[in-house]
Amino acid sequence: MKTAIVTDTTAYLPDDIKAELGIHTIPLLVTIDGKEFKEDVDITTEAFYEMVRGKGPLPKTSQPAIGDFEALFSELAKDYDAVITIHLSSGISGTYMGALQAAELVPELEVLAFDSEVSAYPQGFYAIRAAQLANEGVHPRAIIEELNDMQKDVKAYFMVDDLSHLQRGGRLSGAQALVGGLLQVKPVLHFVDKVIVPFEKIRTSRKAMKRISDLLSEDAKNQLLDAVVIHANRYDDAVEWKKQLEEKHPNVDFTISHFGPVIGTHLGEGAMGLGWVKRRGT
Hints:
Elements: E1 3-8, H1 15-21, E2 23-26, E3 29-32, E4 35-38, H2 45-52, E5 60-62, H3 66-76, E6 82-87, H4 95-103, E7 110-115, H5 121-135, H6 140-150, E8 155-159, H7 164-168, H8 174-183, E9 188-192, E10 195-200, H9 205-219, E11 225-231, H10 235-248, E12 252-258, H11 261-267, E13 272-278
Parallel strand pairs: 1-2, 1-6, 6-7, 11-12
Antiparallel strand pairs: 3-4, 3-5, 8-9, 8-13, 9-10, 11-13
């Protein structure tokens, strides 16, 4: 079977990787001052942070329209027998469910949807691995089995400068945001059961980043990892953090990614993250 791999733009995969592996993407949407933009189509990450900096109302985000999914699947059905479509956590977005609904409208194509239960580049780990296997001719259901097995190995932690974005956007409970604001902490956050929850409350950004680094170190002791430093408009800081981590962990292959408009809406400018996964295949 010939299998296409689809993910959404919140994986923030670079264009060269998508082109090399043949990964297709569907954009989520962000609305700023009443104007709707398709992520990575109508607005760049740099333009997004410039537009929202210092503005009052929080931008709104939304999942792709069912019709957009249907159009993409119908186009892929011309050349493929199956599609594996990989999306950000269903606990923070309806994108995964939208893909399932659209699949019913394209019966000529076998569509297998996968809930990454995370977002940003750690979501991309799944898309990259799925594409590698698809290009090797692996059956789509065997690819899904591999992705399910990967879930025990994918880790992602992040910290935000301002908890109000997560609280106002409904991605973190009001009580948790209030406690964080009163204590002026920089909590380390992660996904548990598909939603964002605090991992530990830490006083400063530097200590929070060190704690995340230590978590990576624990997993990097006896295995090869692929890892990513993720930033919300803090590229220079991401480069420096990556350099420090590379010196400490020669057995880990690091890259740099970013939080684009949709995820950046909820985390806010200044957020930093680190994700990693056990290296598989080539």
